[in-house]
Amino acid sequence: MARQEINRSGEMEVFARVVEEGGFTAAAKALSMTPSAVSKLVARLEARLGSRLVNRSTRKLQLTAEGLTFHERSLRVLADLDEAERAVSACAAPRGRLRINANVPFGLHHLLPLIPKFSALNPQVQVDVTLTDQVIDLLDERAELAIRVGPMRPSQLVARKLGDSRTVLVASPGYLARRGTPKHPDDLADHDLITFNFSRQSDEWPFLIGGERVSYPVQGRSLVGDGESATHLALAGQGITKLGIFHIIDPIRAGRLVPVLDDFNSGELETVSAVYVGHAGPLPARVRAMIDFLAAEVDVHWPMGRAL
């Protein structure tokens, strides 16, 4: 018999049950097999090993010295197999290293503050977080989970929505005191704007005027590569910028940034999603635990109306 055709763990399990039950008939009943099938399997095992494992009689079963050794080792192997299956089972306690990638604003203001609570709930998970505003390839970076903001392009990634955040124009009170507060989108032509330098960013800002959506072309006096940089420049009085509320809700509530032209807000949303590589098998328990945790804990009630 070819080696790959032998179900050695199955043989060990049947043999161990024969010993545990004290005979072929009792083992067959416990395994939902026929006594002849159990007897033949043990006979094949003995033939393959070249050693007699049991001395058979009509009254009882007695293990040989080789049988005792094989039984002892079989129990160890079966226990290791059970442990291996539990370790990777979706039902097992989450464990292992979980690599997460998130953009800088979401990571700083929403993900990192939640890590201590997640770790307390999942003490066997080692959380490995990388913050970057570059869109990475999860496979290349060996990340199991990423947080993405904005529309998802068609890919092999599976996304679970964590929430929506509308966008808002903001500036510092100092800037507005110095340059004046725009009353209409047309007034933006006389203001300094902070925009983004990455290719996927639109160079237009949409507004709702007279019930119609109108897009205004914008040209930044300052260009940045991430939302944190735009926030810092706006706080420093560099100009007006447009960001998702989840970036800047705290400085807005503190009065350090002021919404601008909010009566013309188009209701544009930024969707925040947890994404992972889709595949046929179940997710590792640590990944599923983090996704479920974020879905429950991330504040999805970022302001959606006019009032902030």
Describe this entry's structure for a reader.
With 308 residues, this protein is of the alpha/beta class. The protein folds into three domains: 3-88, Arc Repressor Mutant, subunit A (Orthogonal Bundle); 96-163 and 271-297, Periplasmic binding protein-like II (D-Maltodextrin-Binding Protein, domain 2), CATH 3.40.190; 165-268, Periplasmic binding protein-like II (D-Maltodextrin-Binding Protein, domain 2, 3-Layer(aba) Sandwich), CATH 3.40.190.10. The protein contains eleven helices and 13 strands. Strands 3, 4, 5, 6, 7, 10, 11, 12 and 13 form a nine-stranded mixed β-sheet that branches. It has a two-stranded antiparallel ribbon with strand order 1-2. A two-stranded antiparallel ribbon has the order 8-9. Helix 1 packs across helix 2, helix 1 (8-21) crosses helix 3 and helix 1 packs across helix 4 (65-88). The longest helix has 24 residues, at 65-88. The protein is rod-shaped.
Shape: rod-shaped
Level-1 CATH class name of the largest domain: Alpha Beta
By CATH's scheme, which homologous superfamily of the largest domain applies? Periplasmic binding protein-like II
Low-confidence runs of at least 5 consecutive residues? none
Give me the CATH fold name of the largest domain.
Answer: D-Maltodextrin-Binding Protein, domain 2
The DSSP helix count reads 11
By DSSP, the count of extended strands is 13
List keywords for this structure.
single chain; 308 residues; alpha/beta; Arc Repressor Mutant, subunit A; D-Maltodextrin-Binding Protein, domain 2; 3 domains; nine-stranded mixed beta sheet; two-stranded antiparallel ribbon; 11 helices; 13 strands
